[in-house]
Amino acid sequence: MSNRSPHADVNRSAVLAHLGAHGPASRADLSRALGVSPAHMTQLTRELLADGLVVELEQAPSQGGRPARMLGVAAAAGSAVGVKVVADHVAFVEVGIDGTVVRSAAREFDASATTALADLTELLSDFIADARSPRLLGVGVGIPGSVDNQASGVVDSVQLGWTQLPVGATLRRALGHPVLVENNVNALAMAERLYGIGREHDDFLVVTIGTGVGSGIVLGGSVFRGAAGGAGEIGHIPVAEDGPQCSCGNHGCLEALISETALVQTARARGVIDAGDGIDALRAAADAGVAGAFAVFAEAGHRLGRALAGLIHIIDPELVVVMGEGTSAWPHWSAGFEPALRSALIPSRRGIAVAVETWQDESWAQGAAALVLATPFDADGIAGAEGELVRERLVSGSGGGR
């Protein structure tokens, strides 16, 4: 492999990530998208072809002259592992550089155990041992809580009962791979920026509903983390002074009123579902036209809409993307959400688009894997030294330990 400058290496990474995120492209398309001269792009793609990281595909239609050859990412260009951590289980995925899930798994996990971090390390090590790609770029970990920064990965999580837990340092010592740790909704926002509708927008919000309520904020094409990595905690906006106690210890938080647990408790108290029933029974009742069940979701949508209107006024996004387990009942949420959101917005912002994306449980883990795949676009250095290691592997073809 030829000697290359650090600048050339970053450009090589950007070419691969762009092809992974947007699909096949011609050299001219890549040159325009990445701000690289046509001559330099020709040299970069020649090296990538020689190293087996990209392949030439079919010719693009021509408006005259010689048809352009399209380039795509080679299947062996590398993969990333993502893990979603919640209180009672972990979910894993291995994804290709284009974000496609290669394989997935889920395992029981007790976040409250004194051996939780050791258990997580063992489970993750077992999953990595069966990696399909010989070129593992790194590991992304999505956590429901605050993370100081992606590279060090010190976690504070009310949901998991973790305080200043050194997740990143522990995992990277044991695994020998780059490890990036992030709030799980921020990770989803990054995945949306790379692979979803967010590719077309520089400023947007990702809002998740389900077991909790959260948001990821993308400004200027980058995820906004705040001073301590805790930006976007929409679930802890106080909305009812005399409301129920939240998991954070405060009373009347949005999450305490519209999370799955809260909706089930409300439905049981009203006699809409039986004492032993859960969210599935509540959704089934609403689907069947039970007015009381429909009302529980519509009221939650109303609260979400009003709270989100406040965030929209502050951030001024182009788009809101709603995701999470709760979207399976979105038609019932929407009945309260849409009127509340639009009426609470100032006239100039009432037309903001709201996109609701279909949800699979592995999406959380896929978002975590995007932490690794996003590093070529990490102009702000959010991924720190771990991101540099990922980039080194991407351009060198290495996938082993440190």
Automatic annotation (TrEMBL):
Matches recorded under Pfam families: ROK
PROSITE patterns: ROK
InterPro entries hit by this protein: ATPase_NBD (IPR043129), ROK (IPR000600), ROK_cs (IPR049874), WH-like_DNA-bd_sf (IPR036388), WH_DNA-bd_sf (IPR036390)
Coiled-coil zones: none
Superkingdom to which the source organism belongs: Bacteria
Similarity comment text for this entry: Belongs to the ROK (NagC/XylR) family.
Protein name (Swiss-Prot/TrEMBL): ROK family protein
Originating species: Gryllotalpicola koreensis
